[in-house]
Amino acid sequence: MSVLVYTENWKGKFRKSTFEAVSYASESAKLLRTDVVALSFGEVTDDELSKLGNYGANKVLSASGVSKGDSQATSNLFAEHTKDVNLIIFSGTNTAKMIAPRLAIKLKAGIVSNVISLPSNTSPLKVSRKAFSGKAIEKTIINTDKAILTLAPNAFGLVESGGNCSIEKIGGSQKGDVNIKGEEIASGKVSLAEAEIIVSGGRGLKGAENWGMIEELADLLGAATACSKPVADIGWRPHEEHVGQTGKAVAPNLYIAIGISGAIQHLAGVNSSKVMVVINTDPEAPFFKAADYGIVGDAFQVVPKLIEEIKKFKN
Amino acid sequence: MKIAVCISSVPDTTSKINFTENNSKFDSSGIQFVINPYDEFGLTKAMMLKEKTGGHVTVVTVGDVSVETVMRKALAIGADSAIRINTIPVDSYSTANAIATYLKENPVDLIIAGRESIDYNGGTVPGMIAEILNLPFVNACNGLEMDGNTANLSREIDGGKENLSVNLPLVIGGQKGLVEESDLRIPNMRGIMQARSKPLTVVEPSSEISLISSESFEKPAEKSACKLVDAGNVGELVDLLHNEAKVI
Lengths: 315, 248
Known about the structure:
By secondary structure, chain A is α/β, with parallel strands linked by helices.
């Protein structure tokens, strides 16, 4: 009767979203009075695998021969380890959403996505989730014995237990139909999904050539850069940076919006941020109604000053 | 090539979301419904593939008669036929089951769905369809080129991409990158006229089992008032973020 959790790695390294999923599994396991088993795909060193113990995993099953992008193989292997499992936890990544729905069909298990809190009831399982792209929260009941949850990023946080885990190497199940040629991971940049701080620019910045100060501010803060939809549509920034209802939903500790008016679609994607700052020339911009802190002013004057002040603060 | 594009009818992105019946149901009054934006990228890609290599594009939607508005729009954009599965979806399982049951009897080479719909955001229907039909699945697909019977694809892996290839048949969960925003098509008058005579067939679902149920909805807590800092005193903002908000 364990809680099973998927622990995703990128080229052998776990990320915050992985540890968050293990933390959630561990806290749920306490409610259910059981232990936590983690499942990992691809080559990961024992050193890296043992980090999962710190977030509450008791045992790690490592299938080094299985590619995470092969959803037929990963979901088959998952299903083989669910005999005594009633709760299965996934982070909210694109890869998790390839495995989890396949597993839901195999097990005929109810699945809930974008979960933001621990179960408020365990029998039947009841959880809160984000819906309508962050514009609402839905309480959902799972009516099956086995349940699968995928988590909204950065909603639950990390819980360190300081524990240790055992590691067991397992073989892969039969390969699926896809042929994986390799992954390209942008290096040296903080990814939006993982960022604690995001500096985001909008149409108010007037052109791609003005993003130097956004990048400088982001570098200073160890932040990721993002942008509004119009900026990605015009091509000033790559669309991977577009946050909002039809782009990425983000939930950093600090979101700094510069030259973004705050259309309802944009706010839907960022309103899970813990603290929001807006810098805009227009005091009537809707973002001022959503933000915690604001400066009414011209980005081209305010941002260089902000960079100066942050430099002073860092020293 | 036969392509099925699964489309969802969702509230326009500018909609304010409200609930009725003691916060148990979405209030659709005054809401403008559109093709789910993620599905629209897939629909456009399907049109491009058809124009290049020939074929037939069917849109498949689960819903009551109200979803026919967006289905006609998909036909006006260029889809050849439309299938409405006549049930109100309860959860992703019932939706996926309805679509997969139809596609099992009416197989296609490529099934394109959006990565997620912008109403319930589950993002699980495409993967479920793939599993029920025992097909390979590529989620968050942001690139697709056909080479004969082989699809060369890329998918977003949160901070990077993975390149893969697979032979048809195949299910993908599409997103921007499959086509660009500027590639999206607006129905023209000729398309709208033609759409009226294209077949929109209503089929009944085989079963209506659901595994989860919704209890209630609420809106996120309102933020307290925004604290304004003078543009001439930016240092105060840094101070507030450090000492009050404790985020830097």
